[in-house]
Write a structure and sequence with these properties.
This protein has 163 residues and is α+β, with helices and mostly antiparallel strands. It has a single domain, classed as Trafficking protein particle complex subunit 3 (Muramoyl-pentapeptide Carboxypeptidase, domain 2). It contains six helices and four strands; from the N terminus they run H-H-H-H-E-E-H-H-E-E. Strands 1-2-4-3 form a four-stranded antiparallel beta sheet. A hairpin with a 2-residue loop joins strand 1 and strand 2. It is globular. The termini are far apart.
Length: 163
């Protein structure tokens, strides 16, 4: 799997951001291992992360009422610099988030060589975006991911169809 940073190499502030995200990845990894060993279903982490996203939608993103506002708020330094991310296809119906490097996948790859587990961890971590999107009237879809061997992640946030 290709997951090599190409920007901001040896920049202390970016290294610090990436280290913080890698620490989050360790927590998610060890919590899911412990949870599954304790008898929780494999989807418990994904459910918890989606609930966290719903919480963030109400607290961190409560005043974001358009796709443009939400995309701007999501693009904090850890995504822009640490993940080499950028917003693409921004319009009234939503936006895409392109991620060129994932510190979480980097860490998980150091903790396990189980590609399926890394994919499951990636799904759980990204479920947070699904929780945010759902509360904001958007649907979330991960159409490509570094964890699945793609060269980048593509996260789509689109308006839910009117019923």
């Amino acid at each position: 799997m290709k997951n090599i940073p190409v920007k901001y190499i040896d920049e202390k502030c970016v290294d610090t951001l990436r280290a913080a995200v890698e620490n989050q990845a360790k927590w998610l990894y060890y919590l899911t291992v412990q949870g599954m060993e304790s008898g929780l279903s494999s989807g418990f982490a994904k459910d918890a992360m989606e609930e966290l996203g719903e919480y963030y939608a109400d607290t961190e993103y409560g005043d974001c009422n358009t796709a443009e506002e939400l995309s701007g708020r999501l693009m904090r330094r850890s995504l822009e610099l640490g993940h080499e991310a950028k917003v693409t296809d921004l319009g009234g119906e939503g936006f895409d988030l392109a991620i060129g490097y994932c510190p979480m996948v980097h860490m998980w790859s150091q903790l396990t060589d189980d590609g399926e587990r890394i994919g499951t961890l990636c799904d759980a971590a990204c479920a947070m975006y699904g929780g945010i999107a759902g509360k904001k009237g958007l649907r979330f879809e991960k159409t490509a991911s570094i964890a699945q061997g793609c060269g980048a992640c593509r996260l789509e946030f689109r308006r839910k169809p009117e019923m």
